[in-house]
Amino acid sequence: MKTRINNLFTRLGVVRLRAGRNWVVTALISGLGWIPAGGLKAQTFMSVNFDGAYPQAGLILSGNTLYGTAYSGGSWALGTVFAVNTDGTGFTNLHSFTGGSDGANPIGGLILSSNTLYGATRNGGSSGNGTAFSLPLPPLPPVMRCKNVTVAAGANCSADAAVDDGSFSPNAGDTITLVQSPAAPYPLGDTSVTLIVTNSSGLSNSCMATVTVVDTTPPVVACPGNIVTDATSPAGAVVSFPTPAASDNCSLASVTSRPASGSTFEIGNTAVHCTATDAAGNQSACTFTVHVNDAVEQINDLIALLKSLGLHSGPANSLCVKLQMAARKLERGSLEAACGNLSAFLNEVNAQTGKKLTAAQAEVLTAKATRIRAVLGCP
After folding, report:
1. pLDDT of residue 48
2. Which residues sit opposite 84 in a β-bridge?
3. Most buried residue among 175, 222, 257, 317 by CB atoms closer than 10 A?
4. What's the rounded Cα separation, in Å, for the pair 184 and 163?
5. Domain end: 136, 159, 177, which one?
6. What pLDDT is recorded for position 355?
7. Contacts of 369 (CB under 8 A, 6+ apart)
8. Quick check: 355 and 362 in contact, CB under 8 A?
């Protein structure tokens, strides 16, 4: 293990100094922190020095790439700027100093800003006393960032969604364009979306995410109007009504009413509760009222009808008195007497048919009085 570490330090231009068991490393590696023993890899600088020689300054880390300088070597034996991956692969000589305007023999560390390396040389330049140099790096591809998103479906059971989570270009001055495939809008459920990120340098990158569209919108339901009808028996009346109108942005599953249409509704008021449910389980409800008229209400309606027929006062008053007496008897709880008054009313209608009453008038009055007797359960 010790041989491997010594060899690494030798290749990186590390001076091994004895200080007990401590080593002093003159080539500091910026940003790497502690490196475990046995986990190091290195670039071996060749004896012909095309890759550089004597790397003395510290390294800088950007992504998975280390950048540094060699004091000498290179094409002109005056030093280089190099790059190497953190796993030891991909060594690249980025620049060999010529001793001219670019300088010679780089010293000190590098600074990386907006994809450009900055540094200084000891020698070279117009006066031979060194330079400050900049070295633009090749443009980098954009950095893509995707995120899974969940959105609510809109009116057409679909939704727009963006899966970008802050993609950017590391190159100074670059702009990026974002293209999602497939493009929005997205249907209900899960859709795999590829985000393609392209920068103004023409380089692209991509990532994938899932767009989940859920239905959170309840249906729209409209109840029919309130219903008023006459009882036909002591139990009330069978009442039918139309199915409530309902719609949904995605898929309507059911519309129910409680009590259901066609049920027997008892005398008085009954609230009908209607519920619309969509395929996602969202619900909306509405309510309307069914009122079933009792015997007294029907008698009062029959009196009003009788007065509207325009009959002669004699027979009209006689018939009205019989109905009024029946209503009073019911209010007092005298069912038998009320049934007798209604029978007397029917007898008089039958006697006046073809005389003071037309056959059509007599038929309507007879039907209504007979229904009232049925509601009361008269024998």
Report:
1. 53
2. 66
3. 257
4. 11
5. 136
6. 93
7. 302, 342, 345, 346, 349
8. no
Q: Are 193 and 230 in the same domain?
A: no
Q: Tens digits of per-residue pLDDT, 213-250? A: 999 999 999 999 999 999 999 999 999 999 999 999 99
Number of H helices, E strands in the chain: 5, 21
The verdict on residue 144 lying in a domain is no
Torsion angle (degrees, nearest 10) of CA 296, 300, 301, 303: 140
Residues 312 and 355 in one domain: yes
> Domain boundary at 268, 293, 318, which?
293
Helix%, strand%, coil% for the chain, nearest 5 = 20, 35, 40
Number of domains composing the chain? 4
Give yes or no: residues 153 and 207 share one domain: yes
Question: Over the stretch 69-87, which tens digit does the pLDDT of each residue have?
Answer: 999 999 999 999 999 888 8
Contact 187, 151 (CB under 8 A): no
- Asked if residue 173 and residue 60 are part of one domain, the reply reads no
What number is the average pLDDT over the span 350-358? 94
Q: What is the pLDDT of residue 3?
A: 25
Distance CA 375, CA 269 (A): 16
257 CB neighbour count, 10 Å cutoff: 21
Of 6, 57, 51, 52, which Cα lies nearest the Cα of 27?
A: 57
pTM above 0.70, yes or no: no
Q: What is the mean pLDDT of residues 259-288?
A: 98
**In a shared domain, residues 61 and 74:** yes
Task: Return the structure tokens found at 198.
Answer: 């392209």
Average pLDDT score over the chain? 87
DSSP string, 133-178: EEEEPPPPPPBP-B--EEEE--TTSEE----BSS-B--STT--EEE
Which residue range is the domain that position 236 belongs to? 220-293
Radius of gyration, CA atoms only, the chain = 49
Classify residue 310 as left (phi > 0), alpha (psi -120 to 50) or beta. Answer: left
278 and 289 share a domain? yes
Say whether both 48 and 169 belong to one domain: no
Residues in a beta bridge with 230:
293
Whole-number pLDDT of residue 92: 87
